[in-house]
Amino acid sequence: MQYVDARSHLRVEIEAKGCRLSPDEQALLQRALQPLSDAVHDLPEAALHLEVVYHPQSGRYRVEARLRLPGGSSVTRQEEVTVEAACELCVRDLVEQVGRYWQTSDHANGRERQAARLDDEIVAPQDPADGPLGRAVQDGDYGAFRLALATYEEWLRKRVGRWVQRYPEAEARVGRGLKLGDLVEAVYLNAFEGYPRHPREVPFHQWLEDLIDPSLKELLRRPDGESENASMARTLRDLPPDKR
């Protein structure tokens, strides 16, 4: 069995030896792997190989999990009476190892450098009256503001997706009344309205990320009103300059 997790791009291969995994067991394994998928969400690539071995003498399953990450790999083995339980223990070990992987200086500094590059590209001014963002806010031109933040689009969408996963209520509503695109637009709207109050000592990417949580809570509290605001914002964003 092979598949790629749509949200994190984690490539998964499951190999069964001495047993045949039923469709129900395969579905249980996919759900058990979700915490690991969340942990590697921001990595450019990750691959997991699960080897499931059934021992008829003991009636137990042994699961060996090999996770390949950029510049490193992790291995763990667990044995339990059900394949799901063994997989969950492996996932727990791997999530901890991924946490240590992120804490190493190279990877931590790499993520910080990526965010800092975004700030350098936008050249957020010290004085909100200066620069493309300040001028767009002064002119009330949301479309120009969004255009100036184009390099943040992919980064912010990933951060929004990760943030929603912290709230089971919100994650359950994705695709059923809650649109991630609306949340992204709500963050941009709040940034547009709050830009003059942006504390200049806070890196711009951090300030933008700090707007995700209040934007999500407001969207959950007023889904219809906030979705309408996001739709209107997209209309303004897409208008040609002479029509704004």
- Report the β-strand fraction as a percent range: 15-25%
Rg result: 22 Å
**Strand segment count:** 5
Mean pLDDT across all residues, rounded? 78
For the sheet with most strands, the description reads:
5 strands, mixed
Number of helices: 12
The SS-based structural class is: alpha+beta
Shape from CA axes? elongated
Task: Give the SSE order as H and E letters.
Answer: EEHHEEEHHHHHHHHHH
- Fraction of helical residues: 55-70%
Low-pLDDT stretches: 120-129
Distance between the termini: 52 Å
What order do the strands of the largest sheet run in, or round the barrel if closed? Answer: 1-2-3-4-5
- Tally of discrete structural domains: 2
Description of the molecule:
The chain is an alpha+beta fold and 244 residues long. It contains twelve helices and five strands. Strands 1-2-3-4-5 form a five-stranded mixed beta sheet, with helices on one face. α1 (23-32) runs parallel beside α3 (83-103), α6 crosses α12 and α11 crosses α12. The longest helix has 21 residues, at 83-103. The termini are far apart. 25% of the residues are buried. Residues 120-129 have low confidence and may be disordered.
Supply the key terms.
alpha+beta; Double Stranded RNA Binding Domain; 5-stranded mixed sheet; 5 strands
